[in-house]
């Protein structure tokens, strides 16, 4: 299996395949694949006119479902991948499988796969207007955090990311990691992806925004379009010492930068209890489930 690393030069080719489909999971976005290529060790090849992406995570070789328009080709390419894994004495594991894709495989090949729901990888989907307006009693605490922030920092600014703000964003990210766990391997890999996003946000088609408080950069976020209705938020970092910084970044980005979207995909919680609590507190309209498929 002749797979190659993902590079910036691959964006136009990936976009041809990704834009042709309607993908609900944030994984199926070139920026996401590029930024987390070190985390999941993504590599790729073209086989049977399908984009095949492999992940090496936690010592396991896994494949994503082949990406192509033709469903018969998807099945044929999956069959080829199963054979290749068998020839290399590797167990066949398919990762990043959406609910719709799992149902498609089950209908095409009843009982062939065993599906394991990957709850920590489920994507949180919100209505944009909910995050932008925070209406209703269940958003009282979010509005209270924002009101306190606005009272304490009346001269704050929320401005588009530009080249002059890249280095301050990098310093804010480093400060965030050192305030949490500077030696944590996952946080180091995350930081590598964030630095790539800041260095290449224009090439990746990312729209960024920065929170300035008293003239200092205290938070930033980056995202881009996932499909015709959905915006994907890839990165969001703030200063935990500034009360309400995360809440106002979340709201203003949804309000001012995602105006033509119906939904916002804020990715997964990775099984982190604090992150799960935070994401649920914004009341997603649904969780986009994710599955691991293995052969029975």
- CATH topology (fold) name of the largest domain: Aminopeptidase
What oligomeric state do the depicted chains represent?
single chain
Distance between the first and last residues' Cα: 23 Å
Low-confidence stretches: none
Helix/strand order? EHHHEEEHEHEEHHEHHEEEHEHEE
CATH class identity of the largest domain: Alpha Beta
Major sheet: arrangement of strands? 8-9-10-11-12-7-13
**Biggest sheet record:** 7 strands, mixed
Helix content: 40-55%
The outline comes out as globular
What structural category do the secondary elements indicate? alpha+beta
How many domains? The number is 2
Can you count the helices? 11
Fraction of residues in β-strands: 25-35%
CATH-defined superfamily of the largest domain? Gcn5-related N-acetyltransferase (GNAT)
Kindly state the number of beta strands: 14
CATH architecture of the largest domain: 3-Layer(aba) Sandwich
Alpha-carbon Rg, integer: 20 Å
What report would you give on this structure?
Helix content is 40%, strand content 26%. It is built from 11 helices and 14 strands. It has 296 residues and is of the alpha+beta class. Helix 8 (163-180) packs antiparallel against helix 9. The protein has 2 domains: 4-122, Gcn5-related N-acetyltransferase (GNAT) (Aminopeptidase, 3-Layer(aba) Sandwich); 124-267, Gcn5-related N-acetyltransferase (GNAT) (Aminopeptidase, 3-Layer(aba) Sandwich), CATH 3.40.630.30. The strands form 3 sheets. It has a 7-stranded mixed β-sheet. Strands 1-2-3-4 form a 4-stranded antiparallel β-sheet. The longest helix has 18 residues, at 163-180.
